Amino acid sequence: MNLGIRAVLYTVRKWKKTLLVFALLLAIMILVLSGLAIADAQEEQSAELRGTTGVSFTVSRNTATGGWGSGNGGSYSTQEYLTPDMMEQIASVDGIKAYNASIRTILCLSNTKGQWLEQLEPTGHALVDCQFYSYGCFNSEYHSLFLSGALVLCDGKAVDMSDDNEIVISKEIADKHGLKVGDTIQAVNTPLSDDQTMELEIVGVFEVVADKTDERNNFNEASYYDYANNAFVSEAAMKGLLENYADVGYASADFFVSDPEQLEVIIHQVQSINSINWNNFLVTANDEVYERVSNSISDTSTLITTLVIITTVISMVLIILILSISIRSRKHEIGILLATGIGKTVILLQYVLEIFLVAIAAFPLAYLSSRQVARALGTLFGKTVENVIVTPHHFILVSVVGTVLLVMAVLLSCIPIIRFSPKNILSQME
Amino acid sequence: MSLWKRACLYSMRKRGKTITLFMFLLIMATLMLICLSIRSAAEIANANIKKALLGYFTVNAKQLDSGITEDMLGQILAIDGLSGKYTLRSYSYANYFDAERNPLEINTGSVTQIPEKYANAGKLVANSNTESDSYFIDAGFELTEGIAITSEQKNVVLLHEKFAERNGLSVGDRMFLGDVSDKSRAISVQVAGLFTNTKEQEAMEITPMYDLYDNIVFTDPATASYLLYGTEGETSVQYGDFYVNDPDNLEQVMAQVQEIKGVEWDECILTRYAKDYQNAKTSLAGLQNIVFIAIAIVSIISFLVLVLFLTLRLRGRIHETGIYLAMGVSKCTVLMQYLAEVFLVAAVALLMSYGTSAAISNQIGSTLLSQVTTDTYETTDLTGVTETIKETLIDLGLSEIKVSVSGKDYLAIWLFGMALCLGSTALAAYPIMKMKPKNTLSQMS
Amino acid sequence: MNIMELQNVQYTYDNKKKVLKGINAQMEQGKMYAILGPSGCGKTTLLSLLGGLDSPSSGKILYLGEDIAKTGLADHRRSHVAFIFQSYNLIDYLTPMENVALTSKLPSLPILEQLGLTKEEARRNVLKLSGGQQQRVAIARALASDAQIILADEPTGNLDEDTAAEIRAILKDSAHKSGKCVVIVTHSNDLAKEADVIFRLRKGELQASDRLDGISLKRQ
């Protein structure tokens, strides 16, 4: 009688036992598959968490290696400025998700009828009260005032790299003058000069969150303006507004990286861009937040990974244990089969085959159900776990490893049988 | 023969089966205990992340006549949920004199009109740790000589190196600070260090001369307190930044602060700063959910496996059950015997699982987790270009992550483990117990 | 020609207790042999030596004139002998037909029917057959194999008198009609009476007699 038929018959006729072993295999498979999916999800989530620490590096002109000139405001550096070209080159390095640089100036804003817009707390001097401290930005979303949370965009969008003439103003000013997103206002750098007056579209409105009266924030010239009297204009618009001022340029630019772990590599890549004279520029890493939390994040990762590894190892042990129990309970049967002249190898093969029959059913079912397990548990406990997904890749990995393991487990649990001497058959029988 | 005796005999005579059961229970108990200890450790790690994201609130008490007094500070710090890390700040202007009370020369820049009383004055910045002041963090100031000022020091100042040079002052020299109002307070201070600015000041012709970088002096909060409030022996400050353990509790802690009596809170401005946490919040919650799901899956499936295993084991004993029933032993007694056997083994396994899981947990804790005791972090300037590599160690006050089995967890595992053994044995025995003795016997052969 | 021959077979248990002390015997095809003896005298040991489950401490066991130790015990077990046990030892997840098919490529139903099982019984779960029917299946399994020697250990020990008689007849037919060499280890005089040759195993020595005589019966 064929060993294959025997294997099928055993599996079918002893269906209660088979079902138990099947359920055990299924449970263990689901455990391991979910474990793999969790390990992956954890990695992804940790990367995402690391990403939220807003790690960046700043390229700024090195005033130490440049010359100095003097003017009526004191001495000033004659070091070269960062050009948009340079920034674009740097930003093209892999792993940089965004960048921003800004030029500061004081703009006088007016409505389309040419009437000056008044500051929040006017002094009474028309040409002072229309002054707004303005930043020409590549991407105002990444301006430090927005990144630090001092200002929050409450309507519309940030000014970005488009060629349009855009402006973002504060909610207070917008409310004071009945302006809203979509309206157009006028801006000029120096009124009553030959500077051009430009029409700018209000694309966004921000709210002031920070306490401006906190003198901590008064460390630069922007301090002399209330946050509400700040404005952000697009780089394209700023170029037009400052066309008469050739000596104004970008002193520094911030580049934001997606994965903090790559920061060092990216900085090295940036510094190997030949067309930029790195003697004139400094690169500083801003990864303070990341440095603070990275240890704790990696601790969490390690804990999850360890749990998954321990679970997987224990699962392997369990499979071996269960199979050896189920095979040990068939000692009697082995005796009979040996007595009827069936070889040990054939008996072994039959058992391997039986396990395969169970595994063939258990593996795909485990795959299908483990895809649901995380989600089901998540909903049950009100936790969302979108990214715990068992992929076909996991399935293949577990199937291959699982199969090898099962064969090994059968062989291992058959050791007592291999050593079973025919002499014992008769005593075993009675 | 009593059922206990039978149970003991079975456990001893069927040594192979008992050992397998023991191994199984030991492994499962160990797994569950590790699971629980990892859960607690992950909770600490999560709390550490939240703490390290530094959520804080600022009390701006500039408008109060006496600022934040030591008494008020004490009351704030007593509130639950604060990490203990805080910064105290005051800002003022001071006239600068040398040790002989002669006025010191300031940089007047391009300003032609010098305000009255400010001819020898500059901005005075007091910070409980000058290293963390915005001038040093955001404006690029760097200490070139001497040491930074902390609140432990009294009557010390940091000077801009140009100011020191202009007035022939160096570290260790003494000078006087005088207030700019009419209160004619003056205090003798010692130069603790010199600083310089690495970025040029964006003057734009609007900066008053007393705000010029050259003219700024840093001091300790106590000195500023004397000049501002005339306090002696006590320190009052204008601003306090208070860090919380869990940024989620920021609002709640702030509400508690405002309940402190005897303070005109209407005059104060409280601002919350938790941008880093807000950014990370969703991802962090996601990571926590993953931890939760991992633990949940492992626990639930472990239970399932345990139940299945005990069922499988009991099925092998139908024959024996038949014999007992035939002998007139009641079903209940037979079931009790099986339970007794499992309990005997489970008790030993649970006892030993404490040792195994503690050993494994220790290994995880000591070899896998970050070894910096996670109390400090290091910031290293990555770019060789700047040539100055600054290493700052800042105490974040993070908790050390201990992966250990707590007594509570251990007790829970005992209760749960025993309940599980009881439940699954009863469940597995149910079909056997339902059988009529006659059927049991026919199943015997 | 003798199908089996034992030449001065000795068996020592644990190097101390001599169970078999130089046994000589010949067995032929088409005959039924009974080995009688008190419990623990070494009957089962002798049977396992004949079946190639164990090898003697000294002496030779020949199958068709060849030493089975030389041709291989495993081969001897596989091709020359078939066992019948007191407790039937059927594989419980196989039907009678499938149990028979374990050892034979021939259709198993005719053999089972010949031994008195109905078609329905031949397809039933073996555990749901009576003891006699189970033993018939076990005998059918032995007969269906190519093995020329059937070794039976107390084949009627678990059966009632009527069934035992039927089984005795079947075993006898196996020897006389199917031409097998049937060796039975037993306590039962009823079974021994049917044998062509009776061996008595006493104190490790084997005494052969053609028939069971009155005197020895009394001695039993």
Walkthrough of the structure:
The complex is a heterotrimer of chains A (about 425), B (about 450) and C (about 220). By secondary structure, chain A is of the alpha+beta class. Chain A is about 50% helix and about 20% strand. Chain A has 2 domains: about 5-50 and about 295-430, no CATH class; about 55-285, no CATH class. Chain A is built from 14 helices and 12 strands. In chain A, helix 1 (about 5-15) crosses helix 2 and helix 2 (about 15-50) packs antiparallel against helix 9 (about 290-330). The radius of gyration of chain A is 36 Å and the shape is elongated. Chain B folds into 2 domains: about 5-50 and about 280-440, no CATH class; about 55-275, no CATH class. Chain B is built from 12 helices and 12 strands. In chain B, the strands form 2 sheets. Chain B has a 6-stranded mixed beta barrel with strand order 2-3-8-5-7-6. Chain B is rod-shaped, with a radius of gyration of 36 Å. Chain C has 10 helices and 10 strands. Chain C is about 35% helix and about 30% strand. The model of chain C is unreliable at about 215-220 (pLDDT under 50). In chain C, the strands form 2 sheets. Chain C has a 6-stranded mixed beta sheet, with helices on both faces. Chain C has a 4-stranded antiparallel beta sheet with strand order 2-1-4-5. Chain C has one domain (about 30-50, about 75-220): 3-Layer(aba) Sandwich (Rossmann fold), CATH 3.40.50.300. The chains are: A alpha+beta (about 425), B alpha+beta (about 450), C alpha/beta (about 220). At the A-B interface, helix 2, strand 3, helix 8, strand 12 and helix 9 of A face helix 2, strand 10, helix 8, helix 10 and strand 11 of B.
At a glance:
The complex is a heterotrimer of chains A (430), B (445) and C (220). Helix content of chain A is 48%, strand content 19%. Chain A is built from 14 helices and twelve strands.
List keywords for this structure.
heterotrimer; A: 430 residues; alpha+beta; 2 domains; 12 strands; B: 445 residues; 6-stranded mixed β-barrel; rod-shaped
Sequence-ordered SSE layout with sheet pairings:
The complex is a heterotrimer of chains A (430), B (445) and C (220).
Chain A: H1 3-13, H2 15-51, E1 56-61, E2 68-71, E3 74-77, H3 84-91, E4 96-110, H4 126-129, E5 131-137, H5 144-147, E6 151-156, E7 166-170, H6 171-176, E8 184-188, E9 198-208, E10 230-234, H7 235-241, E11 252-257, H8 263-271, E12 281-286, H9 288-328, H10 331-339, H11 344-380, H12 392-413, H13 415-418, H14 423-429
Helix pairs in contact in A: 1-2, 1-11, 2-9, 2-11, 2-12, 9-12, 10-14, 11-12
Chain B: H1 3-13, H2 15-52, E1 56-60, H3 70-77, E2 82-98, E3 121-127, H4 134-137, E4 141-146, E5 156-160, H5 161-166, E6 174-179, E7 186-197, E8 217-219, H6 221-229, E9 239-244, H7 250-257, E10 269-273, H8 275-315, H9 318-326, H10 331-368, E11 376-380, E12 391-395, H11 407-434, H12 437-442
Helix pairs in contact in B: 1-2, 1-10, 2-8, 2-10, 2-11, 8-11, 10-11
Chain C: E1 2-13, E2 17-28, E3 32-36, H1 43-50, E4 58-63, E5 66-67, H2 68-71, H3 73-79, E6 81-84, H4 96-101, H5 109-114, H6 119-122, H7 131-144, E7 149-153, H8 161-176, E8 181-186, H9 189-194, E9 197-202, E10 205-209, H10 214-219
Parallel strand pairs in C: 3-8, 3-9, 6-7, 7-8
Antiparallel strand pairs in C: 1-2, 1-4, 4-5, 9-10
Helix pairs in contact in C: 7-8
